[in-house]
Design the sequence.
């Protein structure tokens, strides 16, 4: 799933390409993906893109006071081209959920943007709204972790009031916006904290380490993603991981094997030496967690 750094990179790239362009066509190929009916999606046609911005993991196109918003969910992505196809989309017959067509008059360039989703479980969501806050997922977002207002004290207040495991807390969009499964693994590894530690049990030193790790990991990933086209963002994300999706490989800090805990539809990775004092976290499918 694209998370804060990739969505930020995608937004900055699309902003440079689409700002000032006219949205000439909107084609919805998956009715299930479109979550709104008023205003109608075709009301966007003929409007000029005034900017592209990020809200958590949501991408938002400002089309002159009307907004096209989408969330890529687990398997969604964006395909950008300056040679858009003229072929008609067959409803429900491809992995394309929507196609947007633009004309950039500054250099007379025609641009195509396809929102795609792989797999059979379809979760990609599209909204056409008059205010980004009309999107329920945006309205309920927690603070942005890279906002100037989000300091160690703000994190401490969140952590000390929660009985959640810290891994789940970091992934909760209503608590902190933009962090998902991958970067929560990376942040907790950098902070040397067990993913199953109870949030309110963390002392001042652990909270300080968690804040510093959050800033380091996210800023580094945002820097790596900035300016890259969508076709390169996935590889950029994977290339910078230390533990996430590296089960069985050596931890780059201590050399111990990276381990995994699996769930019904996801998994997490961690280093026992760095994060749990050598204790192996049991797989929930077969036994209880080790604290």
Sequence:
């Amino acid at each position: 799933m694209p998370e804060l750094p990739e969505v930020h990179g995608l937004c900055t790239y699309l902003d440079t390409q689409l700002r000032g362009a006219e949205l000439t066509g909107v084609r919805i190929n998956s009715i299930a993906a479109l979550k709104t009916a008023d205003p109608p999606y075709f009301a966007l046609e003929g409007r000029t893109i005034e900017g592209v911005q990020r809200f958590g993991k949501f991408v938002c196109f400002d089309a002159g006071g009307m907004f096209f918003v989408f969330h890529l969910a687990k398997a969604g992505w964006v395909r950008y081209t300056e040679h858009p196809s003229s072929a008609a989309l067959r409803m429900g017959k491809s992995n394309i959920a929507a196609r947007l067509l633009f004309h950039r008059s500054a250099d007379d360039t025609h641009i195509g943007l396809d929102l795609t989703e792989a797999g059979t479980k379809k979760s990609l969501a599209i909204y056409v709204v008059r205010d980004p806050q009309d999107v329920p997922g945006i309205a309920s977002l927690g603070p942005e972790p890279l906002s100037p207002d989000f300091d160690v004290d703000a994190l401490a207040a969140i952590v000390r009031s929660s009985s959640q495991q810290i891994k789940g807390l970091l992934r909760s969009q209503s608590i902190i916006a933009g962090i998902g499964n991958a970067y929560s693994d990376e942040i907790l590894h950098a902070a040397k904290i067990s993913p199953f530690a109870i949030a309110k049990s963390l002392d001042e030193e652990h909270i300080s380490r968690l804040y510093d790790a959050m800033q380091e990991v996210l800023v580094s990933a945002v820097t790596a993603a900035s300016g890259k086209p969508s076709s390169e963002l996935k590889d950029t994300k994977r290339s910078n991981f230390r533990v996430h999706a590296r089960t069985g490989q050596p931890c780059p800090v201590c050399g111990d094997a990276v381990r995994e805990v699996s769930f019904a539809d996801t998994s997490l990775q961690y280093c026992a030496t760095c994060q749990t004092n050598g204790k192996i976290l049991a797989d929930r499918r077969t036994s209880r967690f080790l604290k």
